[in-house]
Amino acid sequence: MRQFYEAYQGDQKVSPLVRQLPWTHHLIILGQTKLPEERRFYISAALKGGWTKRELERQIRTQASRRQDLGPGRVSEALKRTHPTAVEEFKNAYSLEFLDLADGHSEADLHSALLRNLGHFITELGRDFCFVGSEYPIQVGSQDFAIDLVFFHRGLTCLVAFELKVRKFEPEDLGKLSFYVEALDRDLKKPHERPSIGVLLCATKDDEVVEYALARTASPTLVAEYQTMLPPKALLRRKLHELYAQLASEEPSVTPMKIARRHRALHAAGRKA
Fold first, then answer.
1. CATH number 3.40.1350.10 given to 70-227
2. What is the pTM of this model?
3. CA-to-CA distance for 263 and 11, rounded, in angstroms?
4. What's the CA gap between 111 and 2, in Å, rounded?
5. Count of other CB atoms within 10 angstroms of residue 214
């Protein structure tokens, strides 16, 4: 109780939230995190996602707060226009360690594993995702096609098509995904629903290639990575340092003192890791 008081006293952002979580959740957060920023993240995320204590422990174990700090997923301008809040609903990297996939797995292996662990996958995606179908059939002209996975997002009120790739992102992947999004909008979207979204979920990506590929597309699409195991902690720390260095160069309001505080926090996290 003393640790609880010392952790949250005077924190005007967190104090209204702490009363909404069960005491067991607080014990997990206090026992497994050290930085105030981490505690704020897991309190807010647990409330938003309705996490059980087991899911909270998994998210802490897979370093969800650090994955979040690596930035949002790369999205097209069309997605920003049609769904201004969508960037908050999607991640740059999804942790799928619960699939227990072997190295060299195929797209069929990934697809099957996601279906077997659909509940875990939806939890990783977010609470507002509702499953619609697998290998979802669509017909355009005289040809039949199948979308890997289709969800409905309650908050965004739209269909979301997932295309799976077990390799590195290639620019031509967006053409097929845009085609699927157009087909959903023309043939399946209901009148009250908003434009559909396409998600290219790939094993790895070059962010600069993704940026170029998304720059001219007129389709509301985004590209994200999936991870079947945690990235090395040294890589996470390096990515965070790069992010803060970029903030320092792009935002004049970010003073050297603020950057120094952030770096001290990173070093503390590094020592903990």
1. yes
2. 0.69
3. 21
4. 47
5. 21
